[in-house]
Design a protein that fits this description.
The protein is α/β, with parallel strands linked by helices. The chain has one domain: Alpha-Beta Barrel (TIM Barrel), CATH 3.20.20.410. It is built from 5 helices and 5 strands. A 3-stranded parallel beta sheet has the order 3-4-5, with no helix packed on it. A two-stranded antiparallel ribbon has the order 1-2. The longest helix is centred in the last third of the chain and has 10 residues. The radius of gyration is 17 Å and the shape is globular. This is DUF72 domain-containing protein. It comes from Leptonema illini.
Amino acid sequence: MSGQPAIVTVAGPGAGGQCRLAVGTCGYSYTEWADSGFYPPGTRTTAMMPVYARSFSVVELNYTWYQMARAEAIARMVEKAPPHLRFAAKLTRTMTHERDADWREQLQQF
């Protein structure tokens, strides 16, 4: 990786249309990535986000699929994140696949 976050401007349909494409992965704190060389050897999971953000501009929050995001947890992540890093949160599975009766209320909480 170049050390620059991956943001690409691409031509869109229509007259001179363009869009910005942010590239990232689903999650960032995988110890296996240290073994692959993405993270320096010995990088602790608590130190992975800044290293990840050198190469990517967005990260998908996979855990939000399994449980409702807590405001405190999101606030801690945002606090640790470099200013350019964006988060894409998955809706919780009870809203998208299980369709609980209160999914609209859950969406408001999300």
